Amino acid sequence: MSDLEIQADLGRQARAREPRRRRIGVAEALAAAFALFLVVAAVAPSILAPGDPLAIDPLSAFQPPNLAHWFGTDESGRDIFTRVSHGTGGSLVIGILATAIGLGLGIVLGTMAGMLGRVVDFTVNRFLEVLFAFPGLLLALLVILVFGPGTQTATVAVGLATAPGYARIIRGQLISVRSSAFVEAATVLGRGRRQILVRHILPNTLAPLFVLGTLGIGQAVVWASALSYLGLGAAPPAAEWGAMLSAGRTYITSAWWMAFFPGLFIVLTAVTATSLGRALERRLRHA
Amino acid sequence: MPGLLAARLAGAVFVLWAVATITFFAIRLIPGDPAEAILGGPGSQTSPEALAAVRARYGLDQPVVVQYLAQLGRLATGDLGRSYALRQDVAPLLVGQLGGTLLLAALALVVAWLFALVLATWSTRGGRFAWYLGSGLEIVAAALPHFWLATALIVLFSVWLGWLPPISTPGPAGLVLPVLTLAVPLAGFLGQIMRESLLTALESPFVLSARARGEGDRGVRWIHALRHASLPAISLSGWAFGSLISGAVVVETIFARPGLGRTMLNAVTVRDVPVVIGVVMIVAVGYILMTVLTDLAQWIADPRLRRR
Amino acid sequence: MGCHALGRAHLHHVGLVDGLLPRAVHRAHRGHRDEPGARPRTTIEARMSQGTGPAARRAAVTPPLVSMLRVRDLAVGFGGQPGTDPVVAGVSFDIAPGECLALVGESGSGKSVTARSLIGLAGDDAWLQAAELEINGSDVLGLSDAQWRRRRGRDVGLVLQDALVSLDPLRPIGREIADSLRLHTTLDRAARRTRVQEVLERVGLPDGRTRVRQRSGELSGGQRQRALIASAIALDPPLLLIDEPTTALDVTVQAQILDLLESLKRHGTAILLISHDLAVVGRIADRIAVMSAGRIVERGPAARLLASPKHEQTRRMIAAIPIDKPRGTRLSSPEGRADAPASAPASASASAPAPAELVLEASGLVKTFRRPDGSEQRAVDGVSLRLLRGTTLGLVGESGSGKTTTARLLLALSRPDAGEVRVLGRPFSAVTERQRRRLRPELGAIYQDALSSFDPRLSVDAVLRDAVRGARHAARQAGNAARDRARVLELLDQVSLPATLLSRRPLSLSGGQRQRVGIARALASEPQILVCDEPVSSLDVTVQAQVLDLLDELQRERGLSLLLISHDLGVIRHASDQVAVMLDGTIVETGDTAQVFTAPRHPYTQSLLAAVPRLG
Amino acid sequence: GTDAGGTPVKGGTLSYASGDAEPTCLDPHVGGNYPQALVSTQYLESLVSRDSNGQIIPWLAKSWTESPDGLAWEFTLKDGVTFTDGTPLDAAAVQANVAHLRDPKTGSSTGYLALAKVASTEAVSANVVRFVLSQPDGALLESLTQPWLAIESPTGLARGVDENCAAPVGTGPFQVESWEKQDSVVLVRNAGYTSPPADADHTGPAYLAKIIWRFIPDSASRFAALQAGDVDVIDNAQPDTIVQAEKGDTITHLDAPRPGASNRIELNSSRPPFNDPLVREAFIRSANVDDAVSSLFQGTATRSYSALSSVEATAVQRPDLFGYDARAADKLLDSAGWTARDSAGYRVKDGARLTVQFPVSTNQSIPAEQSLFEQLQATAKKTGFDVVLTPMDLSSWYTALGENGYDAVSAPYTKVGPDVLRILFDSAGIVPAPSGYFANHAQVNDPAVDALLAEAATVTDAGKRAALYTDVQNKVLEGFYLLPLYDQQNHYLLSSRVSGARAMPTVSTPTFYDAWLPAE
Ligand SMILES: Nc1ncnc2c1ncn2[C@@H]1O[C@H](COP(=O)(O)OP(=O)(O)OP(=O)(O)O)[C@@H](O)[C@H]1O
Ligand SMILES: Nc1ncnc2c1ncn2[C@@H]1O[C@H](COP(=O)(O)OP(=O)(O)OP(=O)(O)O)[C@@H](O)[C@H]1O
Ligand SMILES: [Mg+2]
Ligand SMILES: [Mg+2]
């Protein structure tokens, strides 16, 4: 199982269990608001922070949060709020791309396993088992060492490391949809294979992927930041959250804000993605 | 049963073989010369004779296929080879490192379970507020990157409060922060699972039946609900093991603990092929054992599985 | 065809007159009803192995009671302000020791909520108001949770509706049954064990030594139901609330449970029996209260109420019982007219083609499944069936006997290991799916679980439009959206559903509505054969009646051939011309319905028929 | 060193936390890097040492003579010194060490290079050993002070490389008791110690009973551990923690810049754009090093204008060449033909952007230094340089260098004495070793420089040698081959409990021979 599968699983369980809630809960509203902030920051960071995230000002280095610098400044006097805002795009793109890669691979593998008969299913399953026996971080590490560190490699590495989880969910979903009563009902009505695939199997398998993707983005951001922390992700002085956090850790005893705020954004992004994913799941289910 | 066992064993052997193979060739792809790693790492101004001597000694001058087969042959006999960089046999080296990591992982798993249990139990009995707080805490905990959490814990407990050492020390005090770092995010995941299943169990008719017999709240939780709630969490423990090993890489580095994670990170960066393969094999064996153990635990905890 | 109808009509009379039903037991509780206070105390004492057991204590101190349970003006609701939007309101009744009061009513009328309220377990967000609420003479209104806890299981026992899941699957039943002993007595382990075995024996689960170690998953439905009852009566509470104890069970098991309740009653236990099945109730209840929309709308002695129901709801329920209603009799009566023959059966057969045309034929079907442990199970073992045009073939058999598997083989949803299915004289199972597709429109299916047979994403409209369009393509007709829409509306009308449902998803429909959408879908291609797998087993009697009536009507109007699968003998008898009885994968008996029901040859069929409860 | 207040106390365990990588071998003959030097200083000793004035002083050798032609050196060893395994220190032992260093199987790099001119060794008597050189070597004594050429027990060496790596046997004040990989090396006092260097504070065995030498790669954890009292000494201290420590009185700061080269950025003169001296000068002028150093190092490092560490007496400082002057940089680029700018503001010539590939070794640069590069990148951008910083792990970094895939690079080089200039700037250093390693990263290929270096290497007269090295330095500095930053930073933070610790004036490794802790 992967974090994703758990997340997905939870979504599935969460149905009736939660207290009866209003149409849009407080948590969802907050998550949506933060998501909006993230989107704005990603698309047009200058609206939120007009400054240059790379502009150095050695004389105002290490300033704690204040009115001029909401999140303080770093060792080179760069404004952390500006950097965090401008870093949103990059970090989200890493998260989204990595998720897309993982999901894409997962779809290919999962569909192969779920649709192409027993031999393929068996082979893919063994392959996934092997991937699961590798700790995710090691898998990512090997990819990065083979192809050299950097944003792209880190993205690919995270994508690869998360793919087995997706593949398993998709395979399971496919198999359960394929053997479901409504597909049988369609057969009895005389539907052809292709029609059934297009009308029933694919839509019912793909709908949960939106949820999976949303949940996955949060985890991917955390993963990518872990790689940056190990010095294997984005190159300095890029305003990527993981890299900023990693740089800030050095100064943790004298300038906590340098590590705190990028970390906060990583956590908030992951939390937001999770909450939204859950909400989406509920909506899809009850719609 | 013997058939099942054989299948399981064959599966395990296959996984180990595949893991070793992938690792072997992946490391080949990493730029850098293992012979240099043997001679004190990159940048050492070694003479060509020295390089040649080392290549011959470790068989690095052989064709890759031969090396691969030789490696497999050694692995098949349980020989993990000799570390290039650490000048030591890999097996005893890793056995030495294994203890620390296992202790860390085991404690983290236990603590995570405890946290998750407490949080799940509390948040399902305290009404709406507790529900939201509980689920919020769990989602946040699950989203915490290890390195950030570790830093926060060090600043809080070592620098500000001065209660706990920021690095591993001989006593149990040195274990507290690393274990917490690993346990909190895991507890977030387990807690979410447990709370969901606890609620399902608490709302189930058999709990209502028990209440109708006069069972109190505590009895219902301890005798019925928690057991059901722990089932899905048990099945997760195989996954948890993998995530703990990944987490150990970061945690062992930050808290300066000896262990597999740190060994692996170092070995990979200096292309110490035998050690990397050794670690990967050990982790894979651990993973396989863990899945067997979880199956067993499930089998014990869930009599429904025993019937067939 | 005509002879079928005649045969049935005759049979109906035989059934009514001969009354395979009221036996000695029935008379026994009449006696109790006359003297509600009479409680044979001596029996209780004899029964208890421990002289100091709670029942014995109670028997010694409690003066003779008029009422074991006294409820006045009970109102219960969920969420919101107490008193607003009650789910149960104005409910009052008494039950005397040794008496059984049955609470009947359609699904959702508030029966279970009433029962749960009587034991203080209405729910976390529930409110409860009552003028009086007394159990065993003491007021239980406003008891604290701890006080309630001391009474539950000792003064009052509750057997929940969902018997199959009301025992903890992770605990041995012995522990579950011993729970109330552990909680309310000071008996030691050994004494508890003895008592548990006694109780198990009483509920008809002897061989207690091995039983106690089994978990609910290892027991059949009826055994579970009995174990659950055992756990409720372990301490012999003077008041027992039993919610739908027989709904999920086969008739044979159902009969055992009713016997058990009767013996409890005889021993002086006051019973509140909840059911929507009047036939069951009629066998055991002394008095009946009918609930509708949270209120008691009619009450009275069982015999009187069943014989001359006054309230419309009661009448509807009695009318909906299929047992002993001749074929062609309407079961559902929205206008309140029960037993009104819709039209003469003969007129239907007139439009039907030659009676002997074989539309569906299965010969020597075998289907084997591999169990997880590797052993093989023959779910269907040499089944041969013949369905004639315009008739209904009923397939009965207990759960797991292979009915669904047979249906799936007939529909070519799974491939038989041996044997063949032919549809309209052409090979069906032995050809490829591509070749089969041309025959598919002739063979419709209705599923036991209607909900999961619908793609959850699609609206009713989409479901039906897909079916209509598919049928059109199969018939190689050109068409357009408007024509399709008209056909969809026509189908809806056929199954008496309003067009307003079109935009809904199946998930948001009621069970009966769903089942009817399923029928509409099956009818879209104007099939000649319908395979119906338990089309009504998950439905309320009233809804069940609607569905059965609809099928009957369709057969009459369109000459449909039906294969009707059910484990409910009443349903089968009411709706089929011929019957096949299935046991362990084989057909043990076939024949005309009349013949099989009057003169069953196979012992299994005999035992099945003997167990059917009847309205008195 | 730290001041010893009061009388030294015997006993106690000192805990040292190193931020450097854990050595793969505790014998500095094998390979030969700084982490090995750090720890081996505690248990191995060299023939000679250097005092804080740069004078060579006796250590294991009590005296030495050079033959007039400079081709033979005779070292007379101290009497009565034994290795901790009981083997006596004699001429044969020294010979065995030289042989060990020169044996390819040992895989020595630093020591091997330092002995390049030694042709053979001879045992003149039991305690006099003669080094026979192929050429005069002015740097021989300085080389011999280094821990990488320390003298180990021949019995120990005979055990084979692997065993010797795990626990080398020396004559030092401590000896290796155990080494738990990834965690710590435990060193215990050598009770029979008799051979302190001439500048030590006391004689006889060390005061401390035990040193636990730990490896804590994470700088934040390391400092936190020092603050929490879990360790007594840390190295590789970050500037901000030094400032923080200096504000309080529970931690003392030991600043010991490393000898040899200064920390500098070398500009690859072998390929465009830095094959044009004007562009090199423009880059140097465009980089605002002063502001960066003062903000990032917060006063813990001083700006260097020299190719050599300020520890070296022969270092030539040229502040005139390395001032920040953006306008001058602009002009220089204009005259070099980089007149146009692209949309991003970078200079272009013939359609090519003025790009500077700058691989950064994450293992060798402390974070403050990486931030410094980022700041230089930002200021150079104003002039139109596109500096591409690429962090790499050590292997990849060496690979990039070996493939000549860089324009600027910062590589530390530690060696005692100005002879380091020969390693860094002799054209022979351009040709990579078989392993791909080379030291002349600026790829200075100037016959005049080569000639000066060759002469200086053979001269032993101090004055003449200094003059020659001054010439070399001026030539290199004026050629704008490098941008000096500051001395190689080497900061130790010590708990104030620790007294008597100091850094060796050789390669600035700490020594705890004179150190002691207050009684518990
Ligand atoms: N916990 C609850 N919260 C809110 N509403 C509830 C709750 N329990 C029951 N209800 C509602 O109360 C009404 C009566 O339910 P109840 O279970 O008593 O019906 P019933 O008569 O037992 O029906 P059935 O025959 O289907 O068991 C229903 O509308 C149901 O939705
Ligand atoms: N796909 C399958 N794999 C293995 N065993 C199966 C499968 N389908 C059915 N069986 C087994 O075949 C037997 C007959 O099942 P079937 O569903 O046909 O019974 P049924 O008569 O329809 O029972 P019910 O009344 O409960 O629906 C059962 O014991 C069941 O466990
Ligand atoms: Mg109910
Ligand atoms: Mg069935």
UniProtKB/TrEMBL annotation, chain A:
Protein name as it appears in the record: ABC transporter permease
GO biological process: transmembrane transport
Main location group: membrane
PANTHER family reported in the protein's UniProt record: OLIGOPEPTIDE TRANSPORT SYSTEM PERMEASE PROTEIN APPC, PEPTIDE ABC TRANSPORTER PERMEASE PROTEIN
Single GO cellular component term: plasma membrane
Domain ABC transmembrane type-1, first and last residues per copy: 88-277
Keyword Transmembrane helix belongs to the record: yes
Compartment list: Cell membrane
Family: Belongs to the binding-protein-dependent transport system permease family.
Topology within the bilayer: Multi-pass membrane protein
Highest taxon of source: Bacteria
CDD domains, per database record: TM_PBP2 (cd06261)
Annotated keywords: Cell membrane, Membrane, Transmembrane, Transmembrane helix, Transport
TM regions (residue ranges): 25-48, 92-115, 127-147, 153-170, 209-235, 255-276
From TrEMBL, chain B:
Cross-referenced SUPFAM superfamilies: MetI-like
Regions crossing the membrane: 9-30, 102-122, 129-161, 173-191, 231-255, 275-301
Membrane topology summary: Multi-pass membrane protein
Keyword terms of this UniProt record: Cell membrane, Membrane, Transmembrane, Transmembrane helix, Transport
Residue ranges of every copy of the ABC transmembrane type-1 domain listed in the record: 98-298
Gene3D superfamilies membership: MetI-like
Entry GO CC: plasma membrane
Keyword Transmembrane assigned: yes
GO MF annotations, alphabetized: dipeptide transmembrane transporter activity
Highest taxon above the source species: Bacteria
Keyword Signal among UniProt keywords: no
Family to which the UniProt record says this protein belongs: Belongs to the binding-protein-dependent transport system permease family.
Protein name, per record: ABC transporter permease
From TrEMBL, chain C:
Any one Pfam family match given in the protein's UniProt record, by short name: ABC_tran
Ranges for region Disordered: 325-351
InterPro entries in alphabetical order: AAA+_ATPase (IPR003593), ABC_transp_ATP-bind (IPR050319), ABC_transporter-like_ATP-bd (IPR003439), ABC_transporter-like_CS (IPR017871), Oligopep_ABC_C (IPR013563), P-loop_NTPase (IPR027417)
Gene3D superfamilies linked: P-loop containing nucleotide triphosphate hydrolases (3.40.50.300)
GO-annotated molecular function: ATP binding; ATP hydrolysis activity
Sequence ranges of Low complexity compositional bias: 340-351
Superkingdom of origin: Bacteria
Chain ranges of the ABC transporter domain: 69-318, 360-609
Keywords: ATP-binding, Nucleotide-binding, Transport
Keyword Transport attributed: yes
SMART domains: AAA
BP terms from Gene Ontology: peptide transport; transmembrane transport
Classification via NCBIfam families: PRK10419.1, PRK11308.1
Family as reported in the entry's similarity comment: Belongs to the ABC transporter superfamily.
Protein name as annotated: ABC transporter ATP-binding protein
Lineage: Bacteria, Bacillati, Actinomycetota, Actinomycetes, Micrococcales
